[in-house]
Amino acid sequence: MTPDTLTTELLDHKTEAATHKKELTLNTKTKTNTLTSELLLKMNAYWRAANYVSVGQIYLYENPLLKEPLKLSHVKPLVVGHWGTVPGQNFIYVHLNRVIKKYDLNMFYIAGPGHGGAALVGNVYLEGTWSEIYPNVTLDEAGMKELFRQFSFPGGISSHVAPTTPGSIHEGGELGYSLSHAFGAAFDNPDLIVACIIGDGEAETASLATSWQSNKFLDPITDGAVLPILHLNGYKISNPTVLARIEHEELEQFLRGSGWTPYFVEGDEPEKMHELMATTLETAIEDIRRFQSNARNNNDTTRPRWPMIVLKSPKGWTGPKVVDGLQIEGTFRSHQVPLLVDPEHPDHVKQLESWMRSYKAEELFDENGRLIPELAELAPKGDRRMGANPHANGGILLHDLRMPDFHVYAVSVPSPGAVTAQDTLVLGAFLRDVAKLNRDQRNFRIFGPDETVSNLLGAVFEVTNRQWDAREVSNDEFLAPAGSVLDSMLSENQCEGWLEGYLLTGRHGMFNSYEAFIRIIDSMFSQHAKWLKVCLELPWRRKISSLNYLLASHVWQQDHNGFTHQDPGFLDHVINKKADIVRVYLPADANCLLSVFDHCLRSRNYVNVVVAGKHALPQWLTMDAAVVHCTEGIGIWQWASNDQSAEPDVVMACCGDTPTLEILAAVSILRQHLPDLKIRVINVVDLMKLQSASEHPHGLSEQDYDSLFTKDKHIIFGFHGYPWLVHRLTYRRTNRNLHVRGYKEEGTITTPFDMRVQNDLDRFHLVQDVVDRLPHLGSKGTYLKQQMQDKLIEHKHYIDEHGQDMPEIRDWKWSNGK
User: Fold this and answer.
1) Strands 466-467, 679-684: pairing kind
2) Which member of 232, 354, 503, 626 has the lowest number of beta carbons within 10 Å of its beta carbon?
3) What is the three-state SS of 528-582?
């Protein structure tokens, strides 16, 4: 842009600005003429530059500055991308840049509207961050060409915001999580503002619809702020959006009813929209600062009605208006590629060239392809650039947790099975002190859908509270404006999103849930695991704290809830992900659980799934033995085995607290009735040990697996989850004589032991399994099998009459079969 051009355009805009001043209206008292004519002109030019590089990313392979007439050979052979949301997001980005500079804000950007990757990549490029991370994409014509070529191109980057995008913590491939991620980032970050752009299609998802209520959990004293910007452009892929089609009054009432103060920016004339957006955005920032100042200076815990912005602009704004007689701008047809440019549509080459030239790139970039200085100066500097904000690369800010010595919480186990304990209750005391030690640093939180007390972790409330910024009544418990526990919202999606945002911005946390209902966030887990997988391939992405799940109230402890609460399938889902990301642990007792969870809280860049019970069960290992066992992840329990002097006749394996109990009870029966039978007992804590070392870094080598399980002996395996998961993990192993008992979709309101009976995981069925596979036992085996069948009938009659398990089940103790 030459000085003469700039002067001429400034004069033209002065007349328009005087007219626009009269037309600007807001739904609150705000000033107008926020922008000088010169600044408005520059911001509009920067927006044009962002739109230009966005279109170039979608279409161009060569000729990035259009220094020669556009040819079909300059266009990518396969044009893939999404245009509809991009110009609106570019518009927002340039305005956020302005307020960051004016107020010296610590702010970053979360892009919710799906495949708007070209917008974020383009803006991060224009501000210089992209070239710092990827030096081959230089700030000149050659770099612009590389920027364009890489987008949605083999070996390049995806069309949505991804880990490869500096400044991002949010994968745009699946909609719905942007606002909960934003709040997770804001917790315990008092100087941070998270600008969260929400697509109006995204706003229809269950996760996002719930997320509007997050403002009841944001403390203006200890937390940062979230500024939602609902981008109403009217359409999804091919349908209108609900929030864009309801009346203005209804939308405003909905947002106000959710606790927000909405400001509306609506229109399609760029100059008017720039002024309106600038004024509105300043009002929102000043609201945030006023709320925080009042709360922090006056200790005012009144919940603010935080500001938000509704930006209503055409879908595909500034793009082709009509193509082949069809309206494009402002319709669903602009959602993806609004203009097909290929050998079947040769006339569209000129239309694409006309579209791109409408942004007047020659005024925006110099001869070498660099953004002209007067536009480049609009972007913030250093870490204030949204693409370079360290919160969006959370490992930079990550500090180790202060950890108590988990040995202190050990259950005293004088001999295997001599005492009982509630495993998660023991863990609760450990987590209490983790929360206490990290209270001042405010970098550890416990998340879950109102199940912290139910899962017996209530000890944490001795040192912290549930964070709750809504109204309280006299009989509420453990509520406070600030606290380390966020479990007051009955939404697994919300809690998962909060936790992910918290971890991605450099803190530590865990999610506790009923096992059956963790399935609600299957897809969210998948997205996070995919994020971590890609991050491991990016040296500039620092490792973050692991996503830790504690699944309690599990499938074998649902005697009062029944079939609806019985689903161990999350384990099957988890192991589908990359082996360098997922870890699955099923500790057999409280001491094992303590050892495992200490390890998980210290780990980085994993998803750790820990399954543990809350009902009183026998305790097997001393703490010293538990540490060794958990470190190995799998091992022979010599104290339960009697094959030390000979090859085993059968291997009895177990994984999970309840299967361990039943396998040991079956071993006890076998050793009592068949004392000559040689039995090897193996317990598995780390489920991935079963997989081959070639498939998972924790997997056993073939030699080690065969040493434990033998090459040909029958293996009776009691497993916590679905039996076929163990078969799937071991399908490459030499020993094919594997017989797994686990959950097989049988259950109802019944006794704990009857749940195991219904799924053939009980001790009586397990003994019969051994007899059936060892024909050399002869008549001794036959008679023992008959006794076990009799016991099953006795059990059924007893529970039908008494409503509880037989005394010999309730009071059983390990006895080496003697």
Assistant:
1) unpaired
2) 354
3) HHHHHHHHCCCCCCCCCECEEEEEECCHHHCCCCCHHHCCCCHHHHHCCCCCCCE
User: Strands 322-323, 261-266: parallel, antiparallel or unpaired by DSSP?
Assistant: unpaired
CA distance 204 to 220: 28
**Count of beta carbons in the 10 Å neighbourhood of residue 1:** 18
Spatial contact of 309 and 278, defined as CB atoms under 8 Å apart: no
Query: Whole-angstrom Cα distance, residue 20 to residue 25?
Result: 10
The pTM for the full model equals 0.94
First to last CA, the chain: 93
Give the integer Cα–Cα distance in Å for 158 and 322: 28
Scan for tokens 């686990």, then name that residue. Answer: 742
Burial 357-380 (b: 16+ CB within 10 A, else e): eebebebbbeeebbbbeebeebbb
Length of the chain in terms of residues written: 818
**Dihedral angle over CA of 353, 357, 359, 363, nearest 10:** 150
pLDDT bucket at 23, cuts 50 / 70 / 90? very low
> Which strand (E) or helix (H) includes residue 508?
strand 508-514
Q: Dihedral, CA atoms, 141, 145, 148, 151, nearest 10 degrees?
A: -130
Q: Quick one: 519 exposed, middle or buried, by C-beta within 10 A (0-12, 13-18, 19+)?
A: middle
Helix (H, G, I), strand (E, B) or coil at 803: coil
Average per-residue pLDDT for the chain: 93
Which residue, among 577, 572, 531, 528, has the nearest Cα to 548 in the 3D structure?
Answer: 528
Angstrom distance (rounded) from CA 597 to CA 594: 5
Q: Which residues pair with 326 in a beta bridge?
A: 323
3 state SS of 474: coil
Residue whose structure tokens are 């383009």 = 122
pLDDT digits (tens, 9 = 90+) for 488-519: 999 999 999 999 999 999 999 999 999 999 99
Decide: 165 and 93 in contact? Cβ < 8 Å: no
pLDDT at residue 640, rounded to an integer: 97
**249: phi then psi, degrees, rounded to nearest 5:** -60, -40
- Give CA–CA dist 375/551, Å, rounded: 52
Cβ contact 714:774 at 8 Å: yes
Give residue 502's pLDDT.
98
Residue 721 confidence class, pLDDT cut points 50, 70, 90: very high
For residues 682 and 518, what is the distance between their CA atoms, to the nearest angstrom? 28
Dihedral sign from CA coordinates of 769, 771, 776, 778:
negative
Q: What is the mean pLDDT of residues 59-63?
A: 96
3-state secondary structure of 633: coil
Q: Residue for token digits 């082709």? A: 320
What letters, b where the CB count within 10 A reaches 16 and e where it falls short, cover 739-778?
Answer: bbbbbeeebeebbbbbbbbbbbbbbbbbbbbbbebbeebe
How far apart are alpha carbons 740 and 774 in whole angstroms? 16
Q: How far apart are CA 268 and CA 319, in angstroms?
A: 12
As a whole number of angstroms, the distance between CA 419 and CA 414 comes to 8
CA distances (Å), 288 to each of 94, 102, 182, 279, in order? 20, 15, 15, 15
Helix-then-strand count for the chain, H and E:
27, 22
Longest dimension (CA), the chain: 106
* pLDDT range class, residue 29, cuts 50, 70, 90: very low
Going by their DSSP bridges, the two strands 322-323 and 307-312 should be labelled as unpaired
CB 259 within 8 A of CB 305: yes
Looking at residue 667, what is its pLDDT? 98
> Cα(580)–Cα(321) distance, rounded to whole angstroms?
48
Question: Tell me, what DSSP letter sits at residue 217?
Answer: G
Q: Which amino acid is at 386?
A: M
Extract the runs of DSSP E, i.e. beta strands, from 335-440: 420-422
The DSSP 8-state label assigned to residue 240 in this structure reads B
